[in-house]
Specification:
With 353 residues, the chain is an alpha/beta fold. It folds into two domains: 218 residues, Rossmann fold, CATH 3.40.50; 114 residues, Rossmann fold (3-Layer(aba) Sandwich), CATH 3.40.50.40. The chain is 26% helix and 25% strand. It contains nine helices and 21 strands. It has a nine-stranded mixed β-sheet with strand order 1-5-2-6-8-11-12-15-16, with helices on both faces. A four-stranded parallel β-sheet has the order 18-19-20-21, with helices on both faces. A two-stranded antiparallel sheet has the order 3-4. Strand 19, helix 6 and strand 20 form a beta-alpha-beta unit. Helix 2 packs across helix 3. The longest helix has 14 residues. The radius of gyration is 21 Å and the shape is globular. It starts with a strand and ends in an 11-residue tail after the last helix. The relative contact order is 0.12. The structure holds aspartic acid. Aspartic acid binds next to loops.
């Protein structure tokens, strides 16, 4: 079980707002030990690396994972924990910042966007490509602006009432984002949706792109996930034995196929036979594209028409990260027949119908 530690990081007599920082781990909070390897550092030293955080005039509380994790180790239990922390602290804070490794940040952001129904406060995920202890680190700018955005209000209402990723001067919708870069600072992109804000001298919010929410609605959190899914990325020469093995996976409830372009797959009969067999067995088969931009339009080419005919569901412009987490979330909370229709309904701005 993940152990947590809570501290009041910054406290002002007359603060402009309250932000809860949830520190899960990732490169952000690492420093070099005596032999030069990167190891998680004690979060209470964070202010030493970022003294200007005090100038934000915000109260900042921190809940940290006692053992910070590399985000390659994130799993649905961590999503449940993050959502539970937001739920139990919801009334006391204006916004939430989650410090998270970049590797699976887009999965966590997508999962949280589905779990936090009725969310009307900002939940901003951020991290860094270089640890905060490094002189050229991107950690300082990412964290300071993420906190500012989490606290930003207009006419008393949060400007960004949704789950988003702030990274390298851009705010992106969480469930539209992808990690696209492991060396440069611009690690994230959302090919199918415009940035929600750009941070320069001022933070320019793209108001028409930000979700408009009913602030009267209260937060309700669904925490169940069912991982009985599989993902096949198509490639020329994919073997029948592999397809066969995946589709025969014990207990499989949904299968995502990452196809080419606008949803195209080889018209090879074995693939189609095996997918038709899966659909007949009641397995949900969802077609999403390997492209970073554009959408699946089944029937546009002959190579996607049969998929449509055999009952494969066209996944529109869902990212892989959103498709995986949405199916796991829906299967955990709804009967299979309902999941079939809900998967292509818009829950939190993750797709364009
Ligand atoms: N492996 C790290 C993680 O995702 C990479 C990072 O934080 O940038 O936790």
């Amino acid at each position: 079980m993940t152990q947590l530690k809570r501290t009041k990081l910054i406290h002002h007599q007359q603060a402009k707002g309250n932000v809860l920082l949830i520190y899960t781990g990732g490169t952000f909070g690492m420093m070099r030990n005596t032999v030069g390897s990167l190891v998680p550092f004690d979060f209470s030293n964070m202010v030493d690396h970022l003294p200007t955080i005090k100038n934000l005039s915000l109260n900042i509380d921190v809940i940290e994972f006692e053992k910070p994790i590399d985000s390659a180790n994130i799993n649905p239990e961590h999503w449940q924990l993050m959502a539970a922390l937001i739920e139990s602290n919801y009334q006391d804070f204006d916004g939430f910042v989650i410090l998270h490794g970049t590797d699976t940040m887009a999965f966590s952001a997508s999962a949280l966007s589905f779990m936090l129904e009725g969310l009307s406060k900002p939940v901003i995920l951020t991290g860094a490509q270089l640890p905060i202890s490094e002189p050229r680190s991107d950690a300082r700018e990412n964290l300071i602006t993420a906190i500012e955005i989490a606290a930003a209000k207009e006419n008393g209402k949060p400007i960004v009432p949704e789950v988003a990723i702030f990274f390298d001067y851009e705010l992106l919708r969480g469930n539209r984002s992808k990690k696209v870069e492991s060396m440069q600072f611009d690690a994230f992109d959302s090919g199918n949706y415009p940035a929600l804000a750009k941070a320069g001298v001022k933070i320019d919010f793209n108001r028409s792109a930000i979700l408009s929410v009913n602030t009267e609605k209260s937060l309700s959190v669904r925490k169940k996930f069912d991982s009985s899914i599989a993902l096949i990325k198509l490639y020329p020469g994919i073997s029948n034995a592999y397809l066969h093995a995946v589709i025969r996976t014990e207990g499989l409830k949904a299968l995502i196929i990452e196809t080419y372009g606008s949803g195209n797959a080889p018209t090879d009969t074995y693939l189609l036979t095996i997918l038709a067999e899966a659909v007949k067995k009641g397995i949900i088969v969802l077609n999403i594209s390997q492209c970073q931009g554009g959408r699946v339009t089944q029937g546009k080419y002959e190579t996607s028409k049969t998929l449509d005919e055999i009952g494969v569901i066209g996944g529109l412009d869902l990212t892989t990260e959103a498709a995986v987490t949405k199916l796991m979330f829906l299967l955990g909370n709804f009967p299979q027949e309902v999941v079939r229709t809900k998967v292509i309904e818009n829950f939190a701005g993750e797709l364009t119908i």
